[in-house]
Amino acid sequence: MYPLPLVTLLCPVRHCAAPLERQARALICSQGHSFDLARSGYCNLLQPQDRRSRQPGDSKAAVEARRRLLDAGYGAALLRALEEEMDALALRPGAAVLDVGCGEGYYLGALTGRGGIEAHGLDLSVPAVDLAARRHPGINWVVANADRFLPYAAGSFDVVLSLDARLPPSEILRVMVPEGRLLVAVPAPDDLVELRAAVLGEGVLRDRLARAAETLADDFVLEERRTVRQTARLDAAALRDALAATYRGARESRQARLEAIPEMEVTLAHDLARFRPLPHFRDTIASPA
Ligand SMILES: C[S@@+](CC[C@H](N)C(=O)[O-])C[C@H]1O[C@@H](n2cnc3c(N)ncnc32)[C@H](O)[C@@H]1O
Ligand SMILES: [Zn+2]
Predict the structure, then answer these.
(1) What number of other Cβ atoms are within 10 A of residue 222's Cβ?
(2) Contact of 19 with 30, CB cutoff 8 Å
(3) How many CA atoms, within 13 angstroms, populate the side-chain half-sphere of residue 95?
(4) Of the candidates 93, 169, 195, 282, which lies 20 to 30 Å from 189 by C-alpha distance?
């Protein structure tokens, strides 16, 4: 069941943005725009202009690959670090947390399982959100395009998470309380470096966190950053999943190189940063474009 949230969801129809109210099996605004709740408990708020492809966001195959990896414990180091960050924030009981680009819900599900928060997860991929909702019924899951509009009232969230995911600065700033915090994780330069070197011919990558900080610079200040690492021996199936989960599994030449590797010890590494909003004076009235 879709829970009854305290955070107000907003209608995603172009130029509407009226509050959505829960009615039996739908969310509906005062203008009569209505969005059915799926049987698994999420709400699809996608608008025609959000669908650049017929299957926007991660494919079912990529989502399932990521879930297998995470279920096997390959997200454990990042999850532990996120738990530490959340504990350090000493949030008020019932604090509202939004996960932008939540995928199949592993991290938000685990953080919510510890109790004390009202959790909202948003992703562009229907297969991702469907899987998330099936496993974690106590969370408010929506399908929406974070690049266009975050369908929540201004000042709703104490914490926003963006984990290997989209980072729309002005929308994140709008939906966050002024003293809120944004936790951003990106793959560290040496994430999967062994696998990328063997299959893609790539080495250590650039600092994506520096790029994220630049994207955010007008609205947020970086408070703290750290790198979390674990090493794992991945078998052939897990190596395939690791590539599929990062969008890169499909090409045939790579597939052949991958199939020649029976197992491999790989580095799993994330850069994790905490950002604080800068004081701002802009208009905070939402209006989906
Ligand atoms: C690399 S995955 C990370 C998923 C999850 N945060 C995790 O760490 O397991 C990136 C996610 O962003 C989603 N995504 C891509 N474009 C998006 C958009 N415009 N709005 C919302 N989500 C988007 C994809 O569907 C995918 O689930
Ligand atoms: Zn509406």
Answers:
(1) 17
(2) yes
(3) 21
(4) 169
- Ligand 1: residue of 164, 171, 268 to mutate (most ligand atoms within 8 A of CB) is 164
Region at 130 (left for phi over 0; alpha for psi -120 to 50; beta for the rest): alpha
- Please name the residue whose Cα sits nearest to atom 17 of ligand 1: 124
Which burial class, exposed, middle or buried, applies to 90 when counting CB atoms under 10 A from its CB (0-12, 13-18, 19+)? Answer: exposed
Residues 6+ apart with CB under 8 A from 193: 202, 203, 204, 266, 267
Per-residue pLDDT tens for 178-199? 999 999 999 999 999 999 999 8
**Does the structure show a pLDDT above 70 at 249?**
no
Lowest-confidence region among 55-69, 128-142, 175-189, 269-283: 269-283
- Separation of alpha carbons 248 and 241, rounded Å: 10
Buried b / exposed e across 248-269, counting CB within 10 Å, b at 16+? bbeeeebeeebeebeebebebb
CATH 3.40.50.150 fits 38-189+203-230+268-277, yes or no: yes
Q: Which ligand 1 atom is nearest residue 102's CA?
A: 6
Is the beta carbon of 185 within 6 A of some atom in ligand 1?
no
Q: How far is the CA of 145 from the centre of ligand 2 (A)?
A: 16
pTM for this prediction? 0.94
CB atoms under 10 Å from CB of 56, counted, come to 15
DSSP for 104-122 reads TSHHHHHHHHTSSEEEEEE
162 lines ligand 1 (CB under 6 A): no
Closest CA to 7 of 137, 100, 120, 104: 120
Q: Is the pLDDT of residue 120 over 60?
A: yes
Which residue bears the tokens 């129809």?
A: 13
